[in-house]
Amino acid sequence: MVSEFRVHGLDCAEEISLIRGRLDGEPGICELSFDVVRGKMLVDYDPDRLDPARIARAVSETGLKCELWTERSERGSGRERRLRTWLAAVSGASLAAAMAAQALTSGDLVSAMLAHEHAGHDMAASVVALCVAAILAGAVFILPKAWHSIRRLQPDMNALVVISLCGAAYLGEWIEGATLAFLFALAALLETFSLARARNAVTRLLEVAPTEAAVIHNDHEHRVAVDKLGVGSLVRVRPGERIPCDGEVASGSSDVNQALITGESLPVPKAPGDSVFAGTINGDGVLEVRASRAASDTTIARIVRMVEGVQRHRAPSEQFVERFARIYTPVMMLLAMLVALVPPLLLGGDWGSWFYQGMVILLISCPCALVISTPVSIVAALASAARHGILVKGGAFLEETARLQAVAFDKTGVLTQGTPEVRELIPLNGYTAAEVLGRLAALEFHSGHPLARAVLRHAASHGVKPMEVANFVSLKGRGAEADIDGEHFWAGSLRMMAEKGLDTRGLAERLPRDAGSVMACGTDREAWALVALADPVRKEAASAVRGLREAGIERVVMLTGDNEATARAVAGQVGVTEIRANLLPEDKSRVVAELRQAGARIAMVGDGVNDAQAMATANVGIALATSGMDVVMETADIVLMSGHLDKLPVLLRLARRTVSVIQQNVVIALALKAVFLILAFFGVATLWMAVAADMGATLLVTFNGLRLLRARA
């Protein structure tokens, strides 16, 4: 069972480490995952051994308030931000008053701030009182966490700040201690606001859905809350209104703006039988929609849940940064102790000065900027992708996409429209088209393959009804056979015809040039007919392939079960030079595996149904949302919600930009640490400078990551 918890103050790897240390040994815990951006913890546990209340109590023992996640959790975080704002203002006002009082009473403000001698400064009691007020207001949120981390012998950033504040007080550096507390509170507040911006970019997707719906019951219309809307309810949507539920158009026609879901800029015509999504905007017609999902299970709600669940598929860079931080922090703390103790003990240095430099290094050792650098960038990138109609299930897949070297496409329904048409039926051996079509339609009536549907449409257009069949057998990847009118009849590829021992020579010359796929049918004695079918190429396929090549993708491969001639005809139209034809579904998976073994990082682009195995074999499985939203959202790593291939270059650019921003953030975080570490060794850096460097780095990487929210197509 999985439960979600709101953890107040969860904003850094230190808190995650603290919680893991408490829960990892708890009987019944299966898996923990964290969303730092939202302050959320997901716990997979055995309900027979644990319950949510016990989990919340265990987390609370670390000094972090924990409760089950509810709709009020978001509002609770708003109250916390307001309290942080008020306390930071009090801390800043007290510090400003203390500085003014010190300047007026002794004129010693500059030396007090720079703390050159660390010998203490003569300060009036009023100045000290104002500094204490600034320290308490600025540190009120970190004191409980610091106490619990020290008590558990797992010192974190909160403990480091409290130790530094105590050290500043011990040395008489009251103004510097107050400055440290204020800067820490201010930076934490700014970080909270910036992370809220990344979070809101996702949650705003849900907010566009209406809260009420006009339900029609017994020819009367009444307003009902959307969360009370039942599956099967009939809803009326007027021009300009947002559709309140996922469903199917029961009556009426209109153009619907689906940009929220698919990223398409142009409205899509809707008529009875067509699917519509909650949150999309109705055009100039009145629609009556039959609800197919509850409000909590709409497509937009599921998209938001998947984006919020990014931490379940953490990016390799994020995992590396967290591993690095676990080593970096204790090493830096040991270094700080050595700086504080070795020079006074062995070199006769001044205890006060070296103790002060040790505290500076302690503050520099905080890895917050480093740890936050990756998740904030990934959340911003996923929100940006969702706005472009691209659903990415986690940072791991985004990072993998950035490193792609090859892309494999399924042909039918991906590079082509997936709606083949019968171009020509060619009877053989004296049989008539009517004789052939009745039997062929009888076989294909039991198949869901796109070619089968094309044959059935062709038969219906000629007024031919399927005949009765017995002993029907579907031959996966080959065709089908059954007993019809007392004879064993089959339909399938030319390969199947050859397997029957029938002569296929000279048949290619009888087919039209634009034939994409070829089907044969007959009995075990002779062939009855050839059927030439063509599946029109998607209009955006060629530009998508060209865009991938321009982006540096080295290999573009087309995989198909069709014959090589058909494959080459389609490949020539879309610009693909490498093809693999005559493949069964398991063969496609094998080809993808071979490409991976050859060293290529490969994405498989398919419909998420017939090629699900190949998509699972690839580094990244990308599906077009054309074969049913339920299926592709489960089988694919990335879903192109519009079903259009032109989103592929957009995805690739966004993924590469995300990785670039993450790399920039890591460099920023480490470079600032290195600079101030050097300054600390030379005795130039002060406590407030160390805090400014640490929190400045945190804010820089946060705002740099948030730039991805503005990523353009």
Which CATH architecture of the largest domain? 3-Layer(aba) Sandwich
In percent, how much strand structure appears in the residues?
15-25%
CATH topology of the largest domain: Rossmann fold
In total, the number of domains comes to 5
Determine Rg (CA atoms, Å): 33 Å
Count helical runs: 25
Give the structural class.
alpha+beta
Helix percent band: 40-55%
N-to-C CA distance: 39 Å
Q: Uncertain segments of ≥5 residues (pLDDT<50)?
A: 114-120
| Biggest β-sheet strands, sense, barrel | 7 strands, mixed
Anisotropy-based shape: elongated
Average pLDDT number: 81
- Tell me the name of the CATH homologous superfamily of the largest domain: HAD superfamily/HAD-like
Number of strands: 26
CATH classification class of the largest domain = Alpha Beta
- Order of adjacent strands in the largest pleated sheet: 14-26-25-24-15-22-23
